[in-house]
Amino acid sequence: MIPDLLVDIQNLNKKYNLAGGMFNSKKRVVHAVNNVNLQILRGETLGLVGESGCGKSTLARLIVRLEKPSSGQITFKGTNINLLHKESLKTYRRSVQLIFQDPYSSLNPRKAAAAIIKEPLTIHRIGDSKTHRGTVLELMAKVGLSAEQAQRYPHEFSGGQRQRIGIARALILRPELIIADEPVSALDVSIQAQILNLLKDLKQDYGLTYLFVSHDLNVIRHMSNRIAVMYLGQIVELAANNDLYESPLHPYTQMLLSALPGCHPHKKRKKALIRGEAIIESEQGCAFLSRCQYKLPVCSEQQPVLREISNKRFCACHLAGLIKEDE
Ligand code: SF4
User: Fold this and answer.
1) Probe residue for ligand 1, chosen from 289, 290, 307, 324 as the CB with the greatest number of ligand atoms within 8 Å
2) How many angstroms separate the alpha carbon of residue 266 from the centre of ligand 1?
3) How far apart, in whole angstroms, are the C-alpha atoms of residue 168 and residue 131?
4) pLDDT tens readout for residues 227-249
């Protein structure tokens, strides 16, 4: 077992059956999470990046057990979370908290900030009204909100302040793992850096572990120790932050980075290599086949699996390590 292993995801699959359209009664199966193997280590920020609709949020929802997998398992500190019931599930839900993308829709508009932040304590029957007040005010100060703002309602706050309320609510149960699902994508760019730096500070102060989900490679780079790149439900590359940005191995990662202005000042990347749209191919070959400029006959015959290419660098491509990025 890996030391400091907090979450271990093994062969995880999530499929949805979609009804056929008006002129087509045939049901479709969408493989939102496709045979994912991934570990989250205690104390790290693992970035999960990919285009919208690639399965990132589904994976996040499976980890917090808002959904159940079609197959495979997730263990948290060695326990299979799908075997948890009642009290053990409640304990798990205290340990793993979600920060949502849209701070406005995730806050109850009829409750004041202090009541929103306090709610998890009431649900989990922790403390009493005397201790709640102190805990809430302490946490509000920690996330940059003043005591005077405690009785204000969500519509009286800016987007950044609302996200601060969401963060305080996620922290009040003193979780071990925070899953931040696009936590700044609904905010103005000027506010994003403040929230990201706040999340970094809180991680340090509370000894947290983050799974940080975003489509934004700049945000992911700023936040993450390691990064997993997801494409059509699969992890196609996994590497330490610097390795990924310095020398991406998978053609999809290369394509994403090629569109990132000023990503690496010492390296001239071909620009605008973003090609095509993510479409579901047959399960047999590589999921990236239709967009890949390097494809070979083997790519349509065999699905590449995620394998270690060099020290702690993983890639799911038949040509991993053989492609020169600027070819
Ligand atoms: Fe491209 Fe083939 Fe690699 Fe898929 S396996 S990314 S099609 S080179």
Assistant:
1) 289
2) 27
3) 16
4) 999 999 999 999 999 999 999 99
Contact 112, 147 (CB under 8 A): no
Question: What is the CA 27 to chain-centroid distance, rounded?
Answer: 29
Q: Tokens 């306090």 identify what position?
A: 118
pTM above 0.85, yes or no: yes
Q: Greatest CA separation found in the chain?
A: 68
Residues with CB under 6 A from ligand 1: 251, 286, 288-289, 292, 294-296, 299, 304, 317-319
Rounded to the nearest whole angstrom, what is the distance from the C-alpha of residue 245 to the centroid of ligand 1? Answer: 19
Q: 177: closest CA among 49, 60, 87, 33?
A: 60
Q: Which atom of ligand 1 is nearest to the CA of 292?
A: 1
Centre of ligand 1 from the C-alpha of residue 32, in Å:
20
Name the residue type at position 27: K
